[in-house]
Amino acid sequence: MRWMIGLWTVLFLIGGSGWTRAEGSELMESWSQQAERVDQLVREGNREEAREELSKLAKSFSQGDFSNVHLSVEGIGALSDTLVDLDRELIRAMTQPEKLNEASKRMRLAFDALAHPAQPLWQSYVFRMGGEIRKMKRGIKKDSPETVLSAANRLKADFRQIEPALWVSRKPEIAGAVQSYVESIAGQAGKEPLPMVPLQSALEQWEKMIRPSLLGKEEGVLAGAGEGPDWMKPAFIVGGVLLLALGYVGWRKYRVDRHEVVTLGRR
User: Fold this and answer.
1) What DSSP state is assigned to residue 19?
2) What b/e readout covers 240-258, taking b as 16+ CB neighbours within 10 angstroms?
């Protein structure tokens, strides 16, 4: 199913069908409302109806024309992944409510980001993440590795919720840089002994570069790329080649598995 959605969206992205911007906005708003409906059904525990609504959303999304939409290939892939991940959680024989609700919320946030780029719901998480950064700073001052690690884990969990929406809302190099930042913070917080000085330095980048980029002032991360810590470098290298890699891998996968496409709702 993942490659069916990806293939259809790439084909429509290349060919297009003459959408106007108004039509595109209406469809994206429709997707956002469908995603909200699916999330509501998940929260109500109505899995069967949630799967039906999710299947409708996936079908509409796979047939969408993105030629007039300012959305990167990575953003399209992130949206597709949220549909696949939620469907996977919905069909589990043994439901895991926490993972199901998280997958549903990620999907809703991602489609909301597409429909409402000026005021996306996911930005409310930025303030929560800032709170975890402050807790980590206090933990360092008090020499409390447990506090630092606990806050870092919550920071990573919050970022996971908004990650697909971030790829939808921001340039690929920005999303990649923020992802690398969070992973670096979480990795350093789990080390023994705790690397106080490097971690403190990385945390200071939150207000200077990372928070502004999450709130839409992308020049913060880009301007600091030359002087930032090592975690910045892989993100920009990956960002530069990711489009070619996605195209090449997708084409190979399509050629090998073209007879094994699985769609939502068929198991």
Assistant:
1) -
2) eebeeebeeebeeeeeeee
Rg of the chain over Cα atoms, rounded to whole angstroms, equals 20
Q: What number of residues does the chain have?
A: 267
DSSP-derived secondary structure for 66-116: -TTS---HHHHHHHHHHHHHHHHHHT-SS--HHHHHHHHHHHHHHHHHHH-
- The percent of residues in the chain predicted with pLDDT above 70, rounded, is 72
Q: How confident is the model at residue 255 (pLDDT cuts 50, 70, 90)?
A: very low
DSSP conformation class of 172 = H
pTM: 0.74
Neighbours of 211 (CB within 10 A): 18
Task: Yes or no: say if 67 and 6 are a contact pair by the CB < 8 Å rule.
Answer: no
Count the alpha carbons within 13 Å of 112 in the hemisphere toward its beta carbon: 19
What does the alpha-carbon distance between residue 105 and residue 97 come to, in Å, rounded to a whole number?
A: 12
User: Of 161, 140, 162, 163, which Cα lies nearest the Cα of 151?
Assistant: 140
Residue 44: is it exposed, middle or buried by C-beta count within 10 angstroms (0-12/13-18/19+)? Answer: exposed
pLDDT tens track for 108-143: 999 999 999 999 999 999 999 999 999 999 999 999
239 CB-near residues (< 8 Å, 6+ apart): 172, 173, 176
